[in-house]
Amino acid sequence: PISLCRPSPEEAQLWSEAFDELLANKYGLAAFRAFLKSEFCEENIEFWLACEDFKKTKSPQKLTSKAKKIYNDFIEKEAPKEINIDFQTKNMIAQNIQEATHTCFSAAQKRVYSLMENNSYPRFLESEFYQELCK
Protein backbone atom coordinates (compact mmCIF):
# COMPACT_ATOMS: atom_id res chain seq x y z
CA PRO A 1 0.00 0.00 0.00
CA ILE A 2 1.11 3.55 -0.77
CA SER A 3 1.71 5.50 2.40
CA LEU A 4 0.29 8.95 2.07
CA CYS A 5 1.59 11.79 4.18
CA ARG A 6 -0.98 14.31 5.25
CA PRO A 7 -0.51 17.45 3.16
CA SER A 8 0.32 20.79 4.69
CA PRO A 9 -2.63 23.20 4.97
CA GLU A 10 -0.99 25.30 2.21
CA GLU A 11 -0.76 22.27 -0.08
CA ALA A 12 -4.41 21.36 0.58
CA GLN A 13 -5.45 24.96 -0.12
CA LEU A 14 -3.86 24.70 -3.59
CA TRP A 15 -6.46 22.07 -4.47
CA SER A 16 -9.17 24.71 -4.34
CA GLU A 17 -7.46 26.69 -7.11
CA ALA A 18 -7.99 24.08 -9.82
CA PHE A 19 -9.58 20.66 -10.12
CA ASP A 20 -6.42 19.44 -11.92
CA GLU A 21 -4.32 20.41 -8.86
CA LEU A 22 -6.45 18.07 -6.77
CA LEU A 23 -6.26 15.20 -9.28
CA ALA A 24 -2.48 15.59 -9.73
CA ASN A 25 -1.81 15.21 -5.99
CA LYS A 26 -1.78 11.61 -4.68
CA TYR A 27 -3.24 12.57 -1.29
CA GLY A 28 -5.73 14.94 -2.93
CA LEU A 29 -6.86 12.22 -5.32
CA ALA A 30 -7.21 9.72 -2.45
CA ALA A 31 -9.17 12.27 -0.40
CA PHE A 32 -11.45 13.06 -3.36
CA ARG A 33 -12.05 9.34 -3.98
CA ALA A 34 -12.97 8.82 -0.32
CA PHE A 35 -15.33 11.80 -0.54
CA LEU A 36 -16.99 10.41 -3.69
CA LYS A 37 -17.32 7.02 -2.02
CA SER A 38 -19.13 8.70 0.89
CA GLU A 39 -21.50 10.23 -1.69
CA PHE A 40 -21.94 6.89 -3.50
CA CYS A 41 -20.52 8.18 -6.79
CA GLU A 42 -16.95 6.88 -6.84
CA GLU A 43 -17.58 5.28 -10.24
CA ASN A 44 -16.87 8.67 -11.84
CA ILE A 45 -13.30 8.98 -10.54
CA GLU A 46 -12.69 5.26 -11.09
CA PHE A 47 -13.78 5.61 -14.73
CA TRP A 48 -11.64 8.73 -15.20
CA LEU A 49 -8.58 6.96 -13.74
CA ALA A 50 -9.23 3.86 -15.88
CA CYS A 51 -9.30 6.13 -18.97
CA GLU A 52 -6.04 7.83 -17.93
CA ASP A 53 -4.40 4.40 -17.60
CA PHE A 54 -5.97 3.27 -20.90
CA LYS A 55 -4.48 6.24 -22.79
CA LYS A 56 -0.98 5.21 -21.63
CA THR A 57 -1.33 1.63 -22.91
CA LYS A 58 1.20 0.79 -25.63
CA SER A 59 0.29 -2.77 -26.71
CA PRO A 60 -2.63 -3.05 -29.20
CA GLN A 61 -3.71 -6.33 -27.55
CA LYS A 62 -3.77 -4.74 -24.10
CA LEU A 63 -5.60 -1.73 -25.54
CA THR A 64 -8.38 -3.99 -26.81
CA SER A 65 -8.69 -5.97 -23.57
CA LYS A 66 -8.63 -2.81 -21.42
CA ALA A 67 -11.24 -1.18 -23.67
CA LYS A 68 -13.56 -4.17 -23.21
CA LYS A 69 -13.00 -4.16 -19.44
CA ILE A 70 -13.76 -0.43 -19.18
CA TYR A 71 -16.86 -0.93 -21.33
CA ASN A 72 -18.04 -3.88 -19.21
CA ASP A 73 -17.32 -2.15 -15.90
CA PHE A 74 -18.59 1.37 -16.63
CA ILE A 75 -20.45 1.79 -19.93
CA GLU A 76 -22.79 -1.07 -20.78
CA LYS A 77 -26.34 -1.07 -19.44
CA GLU A 78 -26.44 -2.46 -15.90
CA ALA A 79 -22.62 -2.34 -15.63
CA PRO A 80 -21.46 -2.80 -12.00
CA LYS A 81 -20.10 0.78 -11.91
CA GLU A 82 -22.24 2.30 -14.66
CA ILE A 83 -21.52 5.97 -15.25
CA ASN A 84 -24.20 8.46 -16.21
CA ILE A 85 -23.65 9.29 -19.89
CA ASP A 86 -26.06 9.79 -22.75
CA PHE A 87 -27.25 7.07 -25.11
CA GLN A 88 -25.39 8.48 -28.15
CA THR A 89 -22.06 8.46 -26.31
CA LYS A 90 -22.66 4.88 -25.15
CA ASN A 91 -23.42 3.79 -28.71
CA MET A 92 -20.36 5.60 -30.07
CA ILE A 93 -18.15 3.83 -27.50
CA ALA A 94 -19.70 0.44 -28.31
CA GLN A 95 -18.71 0.99 -31.96
CA ASN A 96 -15.28 2.46 -31.13
CA ILE A 97 -14.11 -0.44 -28.96
CA GLN A 98 -14.48 -2.87 -31.86
CA GLU A 99 -11.20 -1.38 -33.08
CA ALA A 100 -9.93 0.26 -29.92
CA THR A 101 -7.87 3.43 -30.16
CA HIS A 102 -6.55 5.67 -27.39
CA THR A 103 -9.45 8.07 -27.98
CA CYS A 104 -12.43 5.69 -27.86
CA PHE A 105 -13.46 6.91 -24.38
CA SER A 106 -12.51 10.59 -24.83
CA ALA A 107 -16.05 11.99 -25.09
CA ALA A 108 -17.25 10.05 -22.04
CA GLN A 109 -14.12 10.93 -20.07
CA LYS A 110 -14.62 14.65 -20.82
CA ARG A 111 -18.27 14.38 -19.76
CA VAL A 112 -17.38 12.65 -16.47
CA TYR A 113 -14.53 15.10 -15.80
CA SER A 114 -16.92 18.02 -16.32
CA LEU A 115 -19.53 16.40 -14.07
CA MET A 116 -16.96 15.94 -11.28
CA GLU A 117 -15.47 19.42 -11.76
CA ASN A 118 -18.86 21.17 -11.68
CA ASN A 119 -20.71 19.02 -9.11
CA SER A 120 -18.53 16.84 -6.88
CA TYR A 121 -15.46 19.11 -6.69
CA PRO A 122 -17.32 22.15 -5.26
CA ARG A 123 -19.03 19.88 -2.70
CA PHE A 124 -15.63 18.38 -1.80
CA LEU A 125 -14.22 21.87 -1.21
CA GLU A 126 -17.15 22.61 1.13
CA SER A 127 -16.79 19.30 2.98
CA GLU A 128 -15.74 19.13 6.60
CA PHE A 129 -12.95 16.73 5.63
CA TYR A 130 -11.38 19.20 3.20
CA GLN A 131 -11.89 22.13 5.58
CA GLU A 132 -9.99 20.21 8.29
CA LEU A 133 -7.04 19.63 5.93
CA CYS A 134 -6.77 23.38 5.37
CA LYS A 135 -6.41 24.19 9.08
UniProtKB/TrEMBL annotation:
GO terms for molecular function: GTPase activator activity. It is found in: Cell membrane; Cytoplasm; Nucleus, Nucleolus. It holds the Pfam family RGS. SUPFAM superfamilies: Regulator of G-protein signaling, RGS (SSF48097). The keyword Cell cycle applies. InterPro entries: RGS, RGS2_RGS, RGS_sf, RGS_subdom1/3, RGS_subdomain_2. Keywords: Cell cycle, Cell membrane, Cytoplasm, GTPase activation, Membrane, Nucleus, Phosphoprotein, Signal transduction inhibitor, Translation regulation. GO terms for biological process: negative regulation of signal transduction; regulation of translation. One of its GO terms (cellular component) is plasma membrane. Residues 18-134 form the RGS domain. The keyword Acyltransferase does not apply. CDD domains: RGS_RGS2. SMART domains: RGS (SM00315). Gene3D superfamilies: 1.10.196.10, Regulator of G-protein Signalling 4, domain 2 (1.10.167.10). Interacts with GNAQ. Does not interact with GNAI1 and GNAI3. Interacts with EIF2B5. Interacts with PRKG1 (isoform alpha). Regulates G protein-coupled receptor signaling cascades. Inhibits signal transduction by increasing the GTPase activity of G protein alpha subunits, thereby driving them into their inactive GDP-bound form. It is involved in the negative regulation of the angiotensin-activated signaling pathway. Plays a role in the regulation of blood pressure in response to signaling via G protein-coupled receptors and GNAQ. Plays a role in regulating the constriction and relaxation of vascular smooth muscle. Binds EIF2B5 and blocks its activity, thereby inhibiting the translation of mRNA into protein. This is Regulator of G-protein signaling 2. It comes from Cariama cristata (Red-legged seriema).
